[in-house]
Design a protein that fits this description.
The protein has 264 residues and is of the alpha/beta class. It has one domain (48-262): Rossmann fold, CATH 3.40.50. Helix content is 34%, strand content 17%. It has a seven-stranded mixed sheet with strand order 3-2-1-4-5-7-6, with helices on both faces. Bound molecules: S-adenosylmethionine. S-adenosylmethionine is lined by residues 4, 11, 40-41, 88-91, 111-114, 117, 139-141, 159-162, 174, 237-239.
C-alpha cells in the first residue's frame, strides 16, 4: 500500500497526464469517462509483496464473499446470527483484525479494492484464526447499494478514507451526501457510523455532510465541537500513525441512526 496522503490523491495514483504506464492510465480514464458514480479510488497496479500475493491466492478465498448484485444473507455468510459491522477501505486490515479479535460476538464485513490489502488481511485472519470477518473485493459504494439491505448493519467503520486533498479531487471523497444517505439507510435504528480522518478539511466536510443527514444524530457530547473522542476500541491505524508523524491532527465522528419514528 503506497502512502495514502500523496499530493495527488488516494493511494499513490498519478493523474493521467503524469503517468507513464499506459495500461494504468487507460484504466483511470475509463473510470472517469464511464462512471456509474465517481470512484473514490483509482485503479492501479499497487505494490504487492510475494507473501500478500500468496495469501491472496491461497488464503483469501475462504474469507471472501464474491461481489453480487443481490443482498447477502449474513446468517448464511457467517454461519450465525450476530450484529454486523461494515468496514469500508480496510487497507492492510490491522485495525479490522484487532477490532474483530476484541469483539468476538460481532461479525465484520470488510470491503477493499486492492489485492495487497485482501492478501494482508487474509494472512492475519489465518494466523489469528478469526472466524468473524469476511471480505469483499469491490467498490464499497456498489457493495452497500446492492449487497446490503436496509437496516442490516449495527455499525459502519470508515477509517482514514483517501483524503483527495486537491480541490478538483474533492468530488472523489467517499463521504458525500448521497452515499451517507445510502449508508444511513443500511443501519438499524441506533446503529452507528464511525468515521475518522487526519485531514482537517475532510473532517469538517464529514461533520457537515453527516450533520445534514436527517436520519442520523451526532453522538458527540452536546457541548463539544461535534467531534468525538477516539473510542478505546478503535486502535491507531497505520495511516493515522503516519498522519500524526506528519503533524496532522485526528478527528473521530460518531453518528447514530435515529429511531424509525423520528426519521424523516
Ligand atoms: C487511506 S487508506 C486507509 C486504510 C485503513 N483504513 C487505515 O486507516 O489504515 C484508504 C483505503 O480505502 C480503500 N478504498 C478507497 N475507496 C474505496 C471504495 N470505494 N471501496 C473500497 N475500498 C476503497 C483504498 O484502497 C485504501 O486501501
Amino acid at each position: 500500500m503506497p502512502p495514502a496522503h500523496t499530493e495527488s490523491n488516494s493511494p499513490g495514483a498519478k493523474p493521467p497526464s503524469e503517468g507513464n504506464d499506459h495500461h494504468a492510465v487507460r484504466e483511470q480514464v475509463d473510470d472517469v469517462a464511464h462512471p456509474r458514480h465517481i470512484r473514490s479510488f483509482v485503479r492501479r497496479r499497487g505494490h504487492i509483496t510475494e507473501r500478500q500475493k500468496a495469501a491472496f491466492a491461497n488464503l483469501a478465498p475462504q474469507w471472501s464473499v464474491p461481489y453480487q448484485t443481490t443482498p447477502i444473507d449474513p446468517v448464511q455468510v457467517f454461519g450465525r446470527e450476530a450484529p454486523l459491522i461494515l468496514e469500508i477501505g480496510f487497507g492492510m486490515g490491522e485495525t479490522t483484525a484487532k477490532i474483530a479479535a476484541e469483539r468476538p460476538d460481532e461479525d465484520f464485513l470488510g470491503v477493499e479494492v486492492f489485492e495487497a490489502g485482501i492478501g494482508a488481511l487474509a494472512q492475519r485472519l489465518h494466523e489469528q484464526n478469526l472466524t468473524n470477518v469476511r471480505m469483499v473485493q469491490h467498490d464499497a459504494v456498489e457493495v452497500v447499494e446492492h449487497m446490503l439491505s436496509p437496516g442490516m448493519l449495527a455499525g459502519i467503520h470508515v477509517y482514514f478514507p483517501d483524503p483527495w486533498p486537491k480541490k478538483r479531487h474533492h468530488k472523489r471523497r467517499l463521504i458525500q451526501g448521497p452515499f451517507v444517505e445510502l449508508l444511513a439507510s443500511r443501519l438499524t435504528p441506533g446503529g452507528y457510523l464511525h468515521c475518522a480522518t487526519d485531514w482537517e478539511h475532510y473532517a469538517h466536510q464529514m461533520l457537515e455532510v453527516l450533520g445534514n443527514e436527517p436520519t442520523l444524530v451526532n453522538d458527540a457530547p452536546k457541548d463539544s465541537d461535534g467531534f468525538s473522542d477516539r473510542p478505546v476500541w478503535r486502535p491507531e491505524t497505520k495511516f493515522e500513525a503516519r498522519g500524526k508523524r506528519l503533524g496532522h491532527g485526528v478527528w473521530d465522528l460518531i453518528f447514530r441512526r435515529r429511531p424509525n419514528k423520528d426519521a424523516s
